[in-house]
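Sequence design from tokenized structure. All designs in this work follow the same two-part layout: the structure record, then the generated sequence. An example of the structure record is given first.
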């Protein structure tokens, strides 16, 4: 074998090794990213999850608002990415306990009794005005001593929460998407899909509750979302009797 042939052979071998190492590195990073995503959502390979859908509060029928359907589709894509499976059930058919399966619960307490139960049990510092009568406080959020009103189509709020029952041992999380309107539920699911890596780095496996504001949904749909505050502590602290409320008008 002369020098030229030997150099060609060595070059081919070096290129093959480099490609193999690059493939192994990419595969390792992809698997690491997947495992972190599965850990955050509580969805290991082939696990089961629950999508709890509300009803359209503005419809006399047992219908689901189209924006809530869009929210469910985005959550279904996240679940599939984790190599997991999902069952879709209505809010009045959910009978399982908390922590048995990862749960994604969509809709406010006025249209989703499962959401109302979760908030009463785990977010005692949050109140949602579900009075059907029109008024400035209709669908307003009270979190701690702060009250957040909405301006339909211009500025609306949604609560995004990841909750666990760590005191009862290992359990799967429940994710809450509690919005003042259906489009805000979709906005929260989209926010979660875009920011789950950052949220995992910040919160790990711990519970959290974030107040988001959807800006000008009549023009931008569910795409423009601002983080108002991390309200975990206030949301998990029971409201005191006769608490003074500070009103924040959406702007």
């Amino acid at each position: 074998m002369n020098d030229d042939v030997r150099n060609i052979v060595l070059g081919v071998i070096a290129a093959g090794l480099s490609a193999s190492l690059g493939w192994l590195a990419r595969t390792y990073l992809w698997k690491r990213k997947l495992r972190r995503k599965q850990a955050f959502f509580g969805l290991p390979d082939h696990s089961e999850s629950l999508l709890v859908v509300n009803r359209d509060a503005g419809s006399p029928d047992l219908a689901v608002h189209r924006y809530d359907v869009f929210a469910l589709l985005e959550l279904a894509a996240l679940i599939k990415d984790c190599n997991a499976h999902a069952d879709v059930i209505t809010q009045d058919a959910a009978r399982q306990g908390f922590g048995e399966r990862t749960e994604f619960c969509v809709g406010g307490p006025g249209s989703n009794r499962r959401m109302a139960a979760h908030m009463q049990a785990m977010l005692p510092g949050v109140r949602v005005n579900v009075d059907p009568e029109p008024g400035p406080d209709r669908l307003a959020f009270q979190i701690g001593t702060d009250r957040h009103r909405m301006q339909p189509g211009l500025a609306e709020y949604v609560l995004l929460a990841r909750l666990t029952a760590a005191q009862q041992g290992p359990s799967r999380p429940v994710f809450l998407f509690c919005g003042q309107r259906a489009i805000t539920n979709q906005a929260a699911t989209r926010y979660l899909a875009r920011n789950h890596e950052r949220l995992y780095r910040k919160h790990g496996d711990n519970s959290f509750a974030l107040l988001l504001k959807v800006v000008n949904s009549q023009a931008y749909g569910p795409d423009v979302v601002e983080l108002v505050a991390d309200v975990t502590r206030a949301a998990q602290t029971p409201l005191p009797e006769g608490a003074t409320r500070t009103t924040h008008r959406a702007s």
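The CA atoms of residues 74 and 233 lie 28 Å apart. We note this feature because it recurs in several other targets discussed in the main text.
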